[in-house]
Amino acid sequence: MKTENLPKNHPRYRSLLERHRLEEGVRKGLTSLQGLLAHGRGEAFDYLFGERTRSWARKAERAAAAELLLARHPVLSVNGNTAALCPLEMIALARALGCRLEVNLFYGPAGRRKKIAAHFKELGEELLGAKPDAVLKGLKSNRARVDRRGIFKADVVLVPLEDGDRTEALRKAGKKVIAIDLNPLSRTARKADLTVVDHVARAVPAITREVKRFKLTPTAKLRKIALAFDNRAGLRQAIGFLSPKTKGGGKA
Ligand code: PTJ
């Protein structure tokens, strides 16, 4: 079915549209098949959260904006799912911050990085990472291959829909990691410095709005906001929200 033929009055229109975008992403060689499975898991969490940005996520998005504005060299990482779901939103955030986007993938084939870079170029943005020229230590996957001008040099990296290994490697390399992950129990969520437990398509524009709102905010105030943020408390809140629903079902 074409995007324009999706029934706009369908109660699950948003979800249909996203699935359609990802399907298109796979067809264009941007998104991996595994990305579809990962999205399914994310959707299940989002369903339980009522498909809206909850209070813990709003706080995390505010703190993420402060961290990104305080950073010397922030970089936003792009994978196959974000390339299909919210490329314009990722570009808008990079422009609000005046920083670069870098494609970084877990799954092959090698040509997918170039396809994602070409997709962003069509949308008016040059991505880093199509021709990686540096290696992030401690990682065996494709994700180790980074750009010297981007993730390699970054002090703060935004990693939407991530696997825990890279989060750990980035932290070991002395970088601050901001993750966007709907699963508050995931290794990424627990390993990141700051975790936004929200749908990436809502989280990225929310962070952009906060960045714009903070543009004239003094550095000292931004530091205060970033320091006051308690990642563990946010994760506990998200897990607690799920607990009555998951524990209530009788004997396992
Ligand atoms: O394009 P690649 O090769 O870099 O691969 C990207 C995926 C996402 C396939 C890869 O990184 C992967 O396998 O990730 P995981 O380990 O499945 O983790 C993805 C996490 O993102 C899971 O915890 C999901 O719950 C979560 N997630 C999925 N969809 C969304 C999401 N979080 C926020 N917004 C979503 N839309």
UniProtKB/TrEMBL annotation:
Pathway(s) annotated for this protein in UniProt: Cofactor biosynthesis; coenzyme A biosynthesis
E.C. numbers: 6.3.2.36
Domain of life where this protein originates: Archaea
EC top class, as a word: ligase
Annotated GO MF terms: acid-amino acid ligase activity; ATP binding
Pfam families, A to Z: PPS_PS
Subunit-level organization: Homodimer.
Record family assignment: Belongs to the archaeal phosphopantothenate synthetase family.
Protein name: 4-phosphopantoate--beta-alanine ligase
Organism of derivation: Candidatus Iainarchaeum sp
Taxonomic classification: Archaea, Candidatus Iainarchaeota, Candidatus Iainarchaeia, Candidatus Iainarchaeales, Candidatus Iainarchaeaceae
